[in-house]
Amino acid sequence: MKKLFQTFGIFFVLAVSVQAQVTVSVVDFGLKPDTRENAVPYVQKALAHCKANSVSTLTFPRGRYDFWPHHCIEREYFEAATQDVNPKRLAILMDEMEGFTIEGDSSDFVFHDRMQPFTLDKCREITIRNLSVDWDIPLTAQATVLRATNRYVDLQINAYESPYIIEDGQLVFVGEGWKSAWWGPGSVMEFERERRIVVPQGHSSMAAEGGNYRAEELSKGTVRIHAACKRTPVVGNLLVLRHSRRDHSGIFIIDSKDIRVENVNLYHYPGLGILAQYSENLTCRNVRCVPNEKKERILAGHDDGMQVSNCRGDVTVDNCEFHGLMDDPVNIYGVYVRIVEKTDDHTLRCRFAHHEIHGLHWARPGETVGFIDGETMQPATTAVVKSFRKIDAEYFELSFRDALPKQATAGNALENLDWRCRSISIINSHFKSCRARGLLITSPGKVVISGNTFESSGSAILMECDLDYWYISGPVDDVLITKNIFKSPCMTSMYQYTEAVISIFPQLPKRDAKIPPYNKNIIITDNEFHLFDYPILYALSVDGIDFSNNRLSTVTTSNRFITANTD
């Protein structure tokens, strides 16, 4: 009898194991590729089945799948560095799922109107792999420069891909369910036509006095922009014409753990490419945030390629590629909040100081909060959270287990110490020409940046924290930058905190030799720098920095190499 029970037990375990490996196809739920039919309701039905029946993999047979806003789930989310346009439209929502994979089989997922392609909420062990994300009508337009003077610039716009109208002398783009006015000459980004790299100071191309302009259609697809240009773009070059808000992410991950994104092309998205917040352990391998060359586009996403905001555990970026972004390829950070007032001996009223970091569930009972001096940005003491109460999107209330310390005064700041990365590994990746910088890293965990190539237009690597604008938290304690190649497009656009190719630049309100250094333990070794006449390293408030065994060479112009001179 005992032997029979053991045999049954083995059979039961095997049965559960087999069940956990069940794979289903979207075809089983009526969705076929290449039909242009709205995939949203079919995918919702398939995901509900997978969740209810512990299915491990949902496959999409190779082809094109179109996602329209009809039938999208709508839900309120406050997403970091994203404008609070709610509710968000969710094309593919994975909610409280575990041990699950979406297998794309190299399919094209094409989206229409404004929506969020993937949302992972309270998930565990999820993989998204082998697919591409794109829009037929992009949410940012581009144009070719036909003629340029200091009084007007003639642009050629693909009116089929980016339909437009002239309304009261303004250039207005119209899409599938939306209408969006061009931000004007001051928002233009200029790319070289042949090499598709941002021209030096390309973020200020076509800047006009006062930002005023008047649009005139010369013929279909040809628009003259009348403006008193302080600088004019080069004829034949390509311009990015920004007109839309960053209101959704490409892949949004919240309150989740052990998430993998593999072999995914993010050709376009309405805000940030991948945004993870209050999540643990994220791996991005063979992810490409790049323009779709088959469509002759120069712009990928609206802004950052990856943002990891208030996360913990391990973050890995391996063999990824970023190009043609309007902001930073990878940005990993925490969020400081301001103390507004002490309402009693255990309670603080606090404020999200930047408008794009509103509404976050900033702390949970049992988490440890650090008190930060508002002038020196030095940590003072800690306390344990008892409760978090949201007042509105901007303000919240924190209650603590014990009586508040003397540092709990208006003007000082708080940092959630429970949501900081244990390790960050950024390896074997290519950071091509984008508007801003390459990497922004603020984390006290172990950071390794190795085997990468940098061609970013601003600083290749920036470590910046502040209490006056972005409210980014997280001094670095252990950073290794090694075996990377830094090329001449770096530092061709001096964009925000861009003091050098590697810029360690905390925005300290008060600088005093008696104040302990903000960052520490940074090793920069065995790298190659092939640059024009730019500073290589700027370091402020660092205890322990090693710059050694690096090879430095100069170039004849900002983009052409000459014989290297080892130093």
| Structure classification | mainly beta
Number of helices: 2
Q: Mind telling me the CATH superfamily name of the largest domain?
A: Single-stranded right-handed beta-helix, Pectin lyase-like
CATH class of the largest domain: Mainly Beta
User: What separation lies between the terminal Cα atoms?
Assistant: 78 Å
Unreliable stretches covering 5 or more consecutive residues:
1-20, 558-567
Q: What's the architecture of the largest domain, going by CATH?
A: 3 Solenoid
Number of strands: 46
Domain module count: 4
Strand content: 35-45%
Q: Tell me about the biggest sheet?
A: 19 strands, parallel
CATH topology of the largest domain: Pectate Lyase C-like
Radius of gyration, Cα only, in angstroms?
A: 25 Å
Report the average pLDDT across residues: 92
* Silhouette: globular
Question: What percent of the residues sit in helical stretches (DSSP H or I)?
Answer: under 10%
